[in-house]
Fold:
Amino acid sequence: QVQLQESGPGLVKPSGTLSLTCAVSGGSISSSNWWSWIRQPPGKGLEWIGEIYHSGSTNYNPSLKSRVTISVDKSKNQFSLKLSSVTAADTAVYYCARRNSSGFSDWGQGTLVTVSS
Amino acid sequence: SSELTQDPAVSVALGQTVRITCQGDSLRSYYASWYQQKPGQAPVLVIYGKNNRPSGIPDRFSGSSSGNTASLTITGAQAEDEADYYCNSRDSSGNHLFGGGTKLTVL
Structure:
């Protein structure tokens, strides 16, 4: 079974860039899946951020597209998220997930990122 | 519009049947998937496609769809089913949408 693990700073300053990495184990990131980032502000619902295929093809949420970059590192079997110009509204638990024809079938445990000075 | 709408909260008596609904224009073209999220945990996929359950999901969970509405039904709700439930679909541009979530209380 595929396992995903998010890592990165838990605190980011306003106007800075949020950077997270998702390590994939138990399977290859070059398999036929899309690798996604989803976030959840405290006490609120889920928001899809974007996704990447191992070829480098990406899809982004239109509301975040201007600030988001998702990349893949096949040599390390991981993918990453960068979100620029962050504000307090970007404070959330960030999840990485595997998406296939069944939906978002596997999720990381999530990591809380707080935007504060 | 590219939105999915869910009732914020639903309750059900222990052992009874409950339906959680999700409405949106995209559901006329694409199936919904459903996720269960318990406090402090990551979401778990419970239903996908026309009415499919991942391995390990009890058969009391089922899904259906009609027009612009998708439904998740729990037949014989158990105490452990108390959780937040989110629907998810995609739109014609390939963007993924989540409903606002439904908090299920088992009485």
Q: What stands out?
A: The mean pLDDT of chain B is 96.
